[in-house]
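PROTEIN DESIGN WORKSHEET
SECTION A - STRUCTURE
LENGTH: 402
C-ALPHA CELLS:
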C-alpha cells in the first residue's frame, strides 16, 4: 500500500485552510457591504466629479475644490453612518420630528443664518466657516420619522384614522418647508414620505382618494393664488410669480420665452446638440456661452448630455437604475420593518429626484430647483446623498440575514 509523503499531506492541509480563510473573508466582506450599492454609488460620485470639473473650466461658480471637499466629507459621513445600527430610532419618533422642525427653521436663527443668491436656506457653521443647507438633512430625518411611525402598524394599517394620522404627521414638515418657500424640497419630502406610508400597509383606495384630494387642493390653491395675486400682488401670493411661470411653461413652453420658457428651450437645445457621442470635455457651448442657466446645478443633466451625448446620458441612467435596484434588493432582504421602510424612503427620494431633474431638462416635468443626486454641484446635497448610501449599507450590514 502506497502512502502520500507527510509533507504533501501537510501542504494540502495548509492549502485548504488558506482557501477556507479566503472564502470566510469574502463572506465576511459581503456581510458587511452590499457590493452593488457601493460600486454604483462610487461610480455616480466619480461621474459627478468629472462633470463638475468640466463645468468648472468655464463656469466660475462651479468650484471643483469645493465639490471635492463635499465628496470627502460625504465619504467620511458614509462610513460613519454605515457602521452604526439605527434600529433604536424606531422608538424615538417624537425626537425625530423635533429635530426635523429645528433643522427646517435653523436658517432663520440669528448668528447661523446665511443667504445665497438672495435666498435664506443655509446656515454658516461657526468656527470652520462652512455653509450647509439643513433642508437636505431634513429629507433623511423625515424618512426616518415617518418610517418609525409606519413600523408601529406591523405592515398593515387597519383604520382610516391611523392612515390620516400618518398623513397628518407627514404634512407637518412638508408644510413647514413650503412656508419657507422651498417648494422643490417639500415635494421630495412629500414623495418619499408618501412611499413609506404606502409601504406601511395603507389600503389602495385610501391612497387613490388622497391623490384625488391633493389634486383638488392644488386646484384650489392655484385659484386662491390667482385671486390673492390680483388683489395684493406677488408679495402676498401663495405661489410666487416665478413658480407659477414654471408651471405655465411646462404646459406651454412658448408662454415665457424670456424666463422659465427660455431656460427650458436652452436645456432642450443643449440636450439635443450633444448628439450621440457629445461635444467632448469643455465643449458644452450652451453653458460656456452663458445661455444655459445654472448649468452646474439645476440643469446639470443638460450640461452632461451636451458634453457626453446620448452615450453619456444613457450611462448615467444605467448607473442610477443599478443603484436604485440594488437598494430595493436591500429593502426586500431586510428583516427589520423600520429599517425596511427607511430603505424604501431613500429609494423613493432618489427615484423622484432623478425623474424630476432629468424630466425638467427634456420637458417632461415642470422646472424646479431639485438637484440631481451625486451629480449636481453642491456640498450639502453631496454629503446627504453619501449619508443615504451609508444608511443603505448600514441596513445591509445589520438587518439582512444571509
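SECTION B - SEQUENCE
RESIDUE ASSIGNMENT:
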Amino acid at each position: 500500500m502506497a502512502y502520500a509523503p507527510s509533507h504533501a499531506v501537510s501542504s494540502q492541509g495548509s492549502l485548504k485552510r488558506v482557501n477556507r480563510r479566503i472564502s470566510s473573508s469574502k463572506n465576511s466582506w459581503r456581510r458587511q457591504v452590499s457590493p452593488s450599492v457601493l460600486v454604483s454609488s462610487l461610480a455616480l460620485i466619480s461621474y459627478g466629479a468629472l462633470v463638475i470639473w468640466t463645468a468648472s473650466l468655464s463656469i466660475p461658480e462651479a468650484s471643483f475644490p469645493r465639490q471635492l471637499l463635499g465628496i470627502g466629507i460625504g465619504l467620511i459621513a458614509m462610513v460613519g453612518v454605515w457602521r452604526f445600527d439605527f434600529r433604536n430610532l424606531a422608538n424615538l419618533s417624537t425626537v425625530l420630528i423635533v429635530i426635523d422642525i429645528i433643522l427646517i427653521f435653523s436658517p432663520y436663527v440669528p448668528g447661523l443664518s446665511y443667504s445665497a443668491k438672495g435666498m435664506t436656506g443655509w446656515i454658516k457653521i461657526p468656527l470652520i466657516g462652512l455653509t450647509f443647507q439643513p433642508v437636505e438633512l431634513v429629507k433623511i430625518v423625515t424618512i426616518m420619522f415617518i418610517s418609525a411611525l409606519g413600523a408601529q402598524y406591523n405592515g398593515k394599517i387597519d383604520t382610516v384614522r391611523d392612515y390620516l394620522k400618518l398623513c397628518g404627521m407627514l404634512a407637518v414638515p412638508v408644510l413647514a418647508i413650503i412656508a419657507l418657500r422651498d417648494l422643490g424640497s417639500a415635494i421630495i419630502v412629500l414623495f418619499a414620505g408618501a412611499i413609506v406610508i404606502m409601504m406601511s400597509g395603507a389600503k389602495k383606495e385610501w391612497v387613490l382618494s388622497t391623490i384625488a384630494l391633493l389634486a383638488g387642493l392644488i386646484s384650489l390653491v392655484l385659484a386662491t393664488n390667482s385671486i390673492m395675486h390680483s388683489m395684493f400682488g406677488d408679495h402676498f401670493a401663495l405661489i410666487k410669480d416665478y413658480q407659477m411661470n414654471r408651471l405655465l411653461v411646462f404646459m406651454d413652453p412658448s408662454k415665457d420665452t424670456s424666463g422659465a420658457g427660455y431656460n427650458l428651450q436652452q436645456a432642450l437645445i443643449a440636450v439635443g446638440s450633444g448628439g450621440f457621442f457629445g461635444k467632448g470635455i469643455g465643449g458644452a457651448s450652451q453653458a460656456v456661452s452663458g445661455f444655459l442657466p445654472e448649468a452646474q446645478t439645476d440643469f446639470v443633466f443638460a450640461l452632461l448630455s451636451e458634453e457626453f451625448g446620448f452615450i453619456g446620458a444613457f450611462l448615467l441612467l444605467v448607473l442610477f437604475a443599478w443603484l436604485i435596484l440594488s437598494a430595493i434588493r436591500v429593502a426586500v432582504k431586510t428583516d427589520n420593518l423600520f429599517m425596511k421602510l427607511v430603505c424604501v424612503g431613500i429609494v423613493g427620494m432618489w427615484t423622484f429626484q432623478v425623474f424630476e431633474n432629468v424630466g425638467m431638462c427634456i420637458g417632461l416635468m415642470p422646472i424646479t430647483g431639485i438637484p440631481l443626486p451625486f451629480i449636481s454641484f453642491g456640498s450639502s446635497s453631496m454629503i446627504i446623498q453619501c449619508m443615504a448610501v451609508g444608511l443603505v449599507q448600514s441596513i445591509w450590514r445589520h438587518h439582512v440575514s444571509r
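SECTION C - NOTES
The longest strand covers residues 119-124.
The CA atoms of residues 167 and 230 lie 32 Å apart.
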